[in-house]
Structure formats: C-alpha cells, structure tokens
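dumping this here so i dont lose it
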C-alpha cells in the first residue's frame, strides 16, 4: 500500500511556509480521477448557483462537443457516458469550475489554486484567466493531442 502521509506532511509544510498557516483553503483540481455518480446532477437540482454556472460551462463547451453537458451529467438516455475521455474531461472541467463558484459563494476563498493537466485549465479559469470559453477551447485542444500523437508532419 502506498504511503501518503509524508506527502501530506510535506504539503502542509509548504502551505505553512508560503501562507503562514495550514488552515487556509486551497482548491486542488485533478487531471481526471474518480467521478462521483450523481453529484453534479444533485447539485444541479439543489443549487441555483451551481446550475447557473454549469449552464455557462455548457454554453462555452457547445462549439466543441456534439453532446449536451447537462444530459451527460444527468445520465440522460442517449447521452454519452463518462467512460469516454472526450466526454469526461470537458465534463470534469465544467464541474470543477462550477464547484469553485459554489465554494466561493459559501465564503470559501482559496489562498491558492493548483491543478494537474486538465486541473491546470480549471485552476487558471478559476483564477480569472483564461475566460470560460477559452478554457473550453483549451480542454478540447488537450483531447486532440492524444488523437494526433505519432502522426507527425513532414
């Protein structure tokens, strides 16, 4: 079993050195990872702010995808599943951005935002640059890299 405690302790030391405390919030956005079935759908139904922000994300993604973000998150019949990388990555980006908005509305302002891969796009968007539309375009660009890998050019 992988030991994680030293990594956590190391992260806390960095936070304490950088921010003077370990009790300030930090938003951490993943590259992908596990998706919680139903979480976004439940928040769509229970949080008007989350719903509004996800609608903004759906609109930003619309030029780049041929599926409905809201249908995917609700598991609607005929919607593609989250097992597809071309679906899960933009959907996860949208959920991360909407969650950050929800957390901020609850008074949780991060001392820092960090991310890895796709999480880096969410991080920059949550920090204010790029715009949501640009973040959607960048996330689509990430999906093209593996599809074109090894094809090279002469």
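and the seq i came up w/
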């Amino acid at each position: 079993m992988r030991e994680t405690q030293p990594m956590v302790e190391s992260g806390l030391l960095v936070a304490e050195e950088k921010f003077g405390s370990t009790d300030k919030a930090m938003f951490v956005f993943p590259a992908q990872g596990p998706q919680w079935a139903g979480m976004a759908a439940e928040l769509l139904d229970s949080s008007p702010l989350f719903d509004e922000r996800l609608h903004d994300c759906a609109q930003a993604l619309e030029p780049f995808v041929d599926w409905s973000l809201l249908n995917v998150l609700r598991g609607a019949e005929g919607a593609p599943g989250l097992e597809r990388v071309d679906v899960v990555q933009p959907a996860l980006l949208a959920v991360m951005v909407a969650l950050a908005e929800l957390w901020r509305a609850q008074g949780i302002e991060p001392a820092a935002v960090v991310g890895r891969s796709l999480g880096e796009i969410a991080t920059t968007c949550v920090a204010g640059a790029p715009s949501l539309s640009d973040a959607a375009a960048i996330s689509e660009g990430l999906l093209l890299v593996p599809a074109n890998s090894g094809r090279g050019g002469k």
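The mean pLDDT is 78.
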